[in-house]
TrEMBL record:
Organism: Mycetomoellerius zeteki
Any one Pfam family match given in the protein's UniProt record, by short name: zf-RING-like
Subunit annotation: Component of the Smc5-Smc6 complex.
Organism ancestry: Eukaryota, Metazoa, Ecdysozoa, Arthropoda, Hexapoda
E.C. numbers: 2.3.2.27
Keyword Metal-binding among record annotations: yes
Name of the protein in its database record: Non-structural maintenance of chromosomes element 1 homolog
Length: 265
């Protein structure tokens, strides 16, 4: 199918959102194209974006398993440049949050710890401003928040993976099923294989609830049946949305500092 205005509308929606939820993307495709073949539409858009070294990536959230469409460059390097405009203090905080997530044994960092990082930054950032900034990063899918802890967001995975590879190569792990890098997943109690939560859920459904795909050792977390939801089910996702909303309400209404900066470092 030729590239039409409908394709541009989908592309603009993804660019505007930064990370467009698959459900919303499907609704848009059905409304514009009168079919639900999203793979075809994305392929046609990406064919036009390829010469520009840009693409729409489909990335699962490691915490919720939900799929997002993300507009990203196909050329990445260790500078981890941001299109958005963040202040020097905000970037310094984000750099530290990333470091804690990647190097943590739990693949996450508590919100309290993040706010306490403000006192160790070389530039001044109040806890109130930090809280507002982190809320914005969650809202824009750079970070994921659950139970008062921050995890790596889908946009960070899609747009900054090369930066993480270059900076934290020894800390990155590979999913035993999809063989892709992961920041958060389920770990086997026997062989230490680590697997994306959504990969494990799909494996359990297709294999009738078998255990670890690497050693077949069965644990309560890994012995999932096709009738079960993933480790982070719909109720958890709703709770996460409530937590983010409460975070926003508790914050003082302040205007975020806007200052151009090309790279994370």
């Amino acid at each position: 199918m030729p590239y039409h205005e409908q394709h541009m509308t989908v592309l603009q929606a993804v660019m505007h959102e930064g990370a467009l939820h698959e459900d919303r993307g499907k609704e848009l495709v059905i409304r514009l194209f009168n079919h639900n073949n999203t793979a075809q539409v994305l392929s046609e858009i990406n064919a036009k974006l390829r010469p520009l070294c840009m693409t729409i990536k489909c990335i699962n959230c490691e915490v919720t398993g939900e799929l997002y469409w993300i507009f990203a460059s196909t050329v990445q390097d260790k500078t981890a440049s941001f299109v958005s405009h963040f202040s020097q203090a905000e970037l310094a905080l984000l750099r530290n949050v990333y470091s804690e997530i990647v190097t943590s044994t739990d693949s996450c960092v508590s919100s309290t710890f993040c706010l306490n990082l403000c006192s160790s930054l070389n530039v001044r950032l109040t806890k109130s401003d930090a809280e507002q900034f982190l809320f914005k990063m969650v809202n824009r899918q750079w970070l994921c928040c659950k139970d008062g802890k921050y995890y790596m967001g889908v946009r960070s995975i899609a747009e900054l993976l090369q930066y993480f590879k270059d900076t934290y190569e020894e800390n990155l792990q590979i999913c035993a099923l999809c063989k892709q890098e992961l920041f958060y997943g389920d770990k086997c109690n026997k062989c230490d294989a680590i697997i994306h939560v959504y990969c494990l859920k799909n494996y359990a459904k297709n294999q009738n609830g078998l255990g670890c795909p690497n050693c077949q050792f069965s644990t309560p977390r890994q012995n999932l049946s096709s009738s079960n939801t993933s480790a982070m089910d719909i109720e958890d996702t709703s709770q996460m949305s409530m937590e983010i909303h409460e975070m926003a309400q508790s914050s003082q209404t302040k205007k975020l500092k806007r200052k151009h900066k090309n790279g994370l470092m």
